[in-house]
Design a protein that fits this description.
single chain; about 325 residues; mainly beta; 8-stranded antiparallel barrel; 4-stranded mixed β-sheet; 15 strands; about 15% helix; elongated
Length: about 325
């Protein structure tokens, strides 16, 4: 009666699978069961390498089934297969996912069971066969997929995209801005260069609706992010250095002048990314930062006290859409 029962927390799984397939295809449980046969244990064991897989299956007009498999491990990779049946592309998905976790276990399992080699009809983008019928085993097929799922020789991923957002604290009013981005990703590290154009705004001087100034901000930002959580939804931690200039031009006063002022700020914050498609990523950045260069400017007119400058504490929110081009 006095005995106690200790509580044990369930270990966090090291494997996630997003299996998107049309009706009539095997369920995701079929893929994980196949992986269990290949690995010798259920995927997600604490001793396994952390891997996240997203597979999208489509039934082509030709009658074939195709699958795009996106693997995120130490780096990101993508494979495409085609086969006459959905079951065969499901088996191909299980094979690629298992190779990303433990290629040696897959090779051992394939030696013991020929049924575990890649199903006939599966093809890579270069149309090379990974077929048990031709005698090509999973072990022999592994060297080509492996570099894209985490080996040191993995290629760098290149993304190009567009962004829209709001920046607070640099100009007197929130700055709506549009821009373009170019990002390089290697393993879990990403470096991004973004240029943005701020929409022109008018700010009236205190006590006057006509006197004031027009402002316009241009920026160039260098951002670095590291993946904290990977999968279909990804959480990153980011830091950025933003530089640029803003123009101020008097309006409604007797002798309006136009001048440009340098701007420099440092930002940090989280990024939530959604890998909507195999090559398309949507991301939301929420940043807080410090104004490192805060020039003051004054507009002379009936109210010479109209002086303003960027604030010490600034913030920004940016929504971007990026397309993988390499």
């Amino acid at each position: 009666m006095l005995a106690t029962r200790s509580a044990h927390a369930e270990p966090e799984s090291t494997f996630t699978l997003a299996w998107l397939a049309p009706a009539g295809c095997p369920a995701d449980s079929f893929v994980t069961a196949r992986m269990q046969r290949l690995l010798g244990h259920a995927p997600g064991s604490p001793r396994d390498r952390p891997v996240s897989v997203r597979a999208r299956v489509e039934h082509e007009s030709s009658g074939q089934y195709s699958v795009r498999i996106r693997v995120i491990a130490d780096s990101r990779g993508e494979r495409r297969f085609e086969a006459p049946t959905c079951e065969q592309v499901a088996k191909a998905t299980a094979l690629i996912a298992s190779l990303a976790i433990d290629p040696e276990a897959v090779a051992r399992a394939e030696q013991d069971d020929e049924d575990l080699s890649t199903p006939p009809g599966s093809e890579q983008p270069n149309q090379s066969r990974l077929s048990a019928g031709t005698g090509t085993s999973a072990k022999r097929a592994a060297p080509e997929p492996a570099p894209e799922v985490g080996s040191p020789s993995s290629p760098i991923q290149l993304d190009f995209g567009a962004q829209a957002g709001t920046e607070l604290g640099v100009l007197p009013q929130p700055t709506e801005r549009l821009g373009l981005t170019l990002a390089l990703t290697w393993r879990r590290l990403e470096v991004e260069l973004a240029g943005a154009y701020g929409l022109r705004q008018f700010v009236a001087a205190p006590g006057s609706g006509a006197e004031g100034a027009h402002f316009q901000l241009d920026t160039l930002e260098l951002r670095s992010c590291g993946s904290l959580l990977t999968g279909t939804f990804e959480l990153d931690g980011c830091g950025a250095l933003e530089g640029g200039s803003f123009a101020a031009e008097g309006s409604g006063i007797s002798a309006p002048k136009r001048a440009r002022y340098a701007w420099l700020g440092a930002f940090a914050g989280p990024r939530l990314a959604f890998h909507a498609l195999s090559r398309l990523t949507l991301a939301l950045d929420l940043d807080g930062g410090l104004g490192l260069n805060r020039p003051a400017f004054q507009i002379y007119g009936n109210d010479p006290s109209f002086v303003t400058q960027p604030r010490l504490l600034v913030a920004a929110g940016v929504l971007s859409a990026r397309l993988r081009v390499w």
